[in-house]
Design goal:
By secondary structure, the chain is mainly α. The protein has one domain. Helices cover 59% and strands 6% of the residues. The chain has a two-stranded antiparallel sheet. It is globular, with a radius of gyration of 13 Å.
Length: 69
């Protein structure tokens, strides 16, 4: 189990719909969503999915950027 912290959220910012889904937040995220999720316990699987969703977004961005260089 993993407890969501502000530091962890900020380390994985540029949030995606998939990331919000992993931590149980609807899309679009409601105002004050961070206060609802900080301190919440999530599974290690949810934590991994949240982190991987950001990596997948970065890979898609990098691949697109490479087309224009």
């Amino acid at each position: 189990m993993f407890v969501v912290t502000d530091a962890w959220l900020m380390a994985h910012s540029a949030w995606t719909r998939d990331q919000f889904s992993c931590i149980g937040i609807s899309w679009p995220p409601p105002r004050g969503w961070k206060f609802d999720v900080i301190g919440k316990t999530i599974t290690d699987q949810q934590k991994t999915r949240f982190e991987q969703a950001l990596r997948a977004k970065k890979c898609r961005h990098d691949a697109t950027a490479d087309m224009f260089t």
